[in-house]
Amino acid sequence: MTGFYPGLTQKITDIPDHEASYFIDLNINTNTIHQLPDNVWSIKYFDAINTLDFLPVTIYDWKRQEVGHYKLSKSYGLNYYNIEIDFLKVEQVYFAEAIDEAGVTHHTAFSLKGPPTEDKPNAEIIVNPMNLSCESFTDNLIEFYVILSGGRTPYQVQWFVLNEQMSDFLYLPRLEKIDGPGKGMSVTVDATPAYHVMAQIEDACGNKLNKVVSVNCQKEEKVYHSIFIEPLSKTMGAVNKQ
Q1: What is the pLDDT of residue 233?
Q2: Positive or negative CA dihedral for 86, 91, 92, 93?
Q3: Does residue 81 share a domain with residue 143?
Q4: DSSP code for 166
């Protein structure tokens, strides 16, 4: 047996009405497997007999092996309990049986939920060329903005504009807060290529994501009036999937 608790588990008094519905009802026998968010088993039991001052409860695992036993203190009427069960394993089904003074068996099933699936943020940098040239001393103007989805809002987005070697900032980093999914504020760059624009995204749960685009001229073919914008996979010493 994993856990045996011969002591009396005390009932709870003064349960607020809005919390009472979260307690599993031992008087209702169903085939439902109740999902517990943690190792606290919250139950309620209506005692209509009250010839004993406790209700024996036995917990079995899926192999029908006894893993725990409790004695719940009770009185006539509705009784509430929060029972901490330290032996629960994630996603394993447990069965509880209680036998009252009249010999009636009350049973229920429950399982400890696993950790939630992590929903990570997604991001895409959108490039809007406004005035482009690879010639020196020529005005260049490109607008960048990020489209966000997934993760937990709000997001924090920090923009970096880096030189060709990704060793220095061309502009001071800029931080913005975005309350929900969709388009973030734009960043306009008037530098002459080549350079890199990176957005570092962090959601409310601390999940982080880097996105980078590279702006460069096709110097090999001496076509200095053409500018090429492409995604990068390397970001400031870290490799990220784009």
Answers
A1: 35
A2: positive
A3: no
A4: S
